[in-house]
Design brief:
The longest helix has 25 residues, at about 10-30. Helix 1 (about 10-30) runs antiparallel to helix 2. This protein has helices at about 10-30, 40-60. It is mainly α. It is about 75% helix and about 0% strand. It has one domain (about 10-64). It contains 2 helices and no strands. The relative contact order is 0.22. The model has no long low-confidence stretch (mean pLDDT about 90).
Length: about 60
């Protein structure tokens, strides 16, 4: 089975964007108190989780 490799530079930028945007949305709702629909809260958690998954996959990929 072929293993997909991620470009470390592009992956790092994408991870930073996903974590940053999702974290900003969650910060805006939970700390500042901006009312937000449940769908957007779940989407914020999903963006942060996917960004963390990208970081994990970048650190665990083999450079063979």
């Amino acid at each position: 089975m072929a293993v997909r490799k991620r470009n470390p530079i592009l992956g790092g930028i994408m991870a930073a964007v996903f974590i940053g945007f999702g974290g900003y949305r969650l910060y805006d709702h939970f700390v500042i108190g901006t009312p937000m629909e449940t769908m957007y809260i779940v989407l914020g958690f999903g963006l942060v989780a996917y960004g963390l998954f990208i970081v994990y996959s970048l650190f665990t990929q083999n450079d063979a």
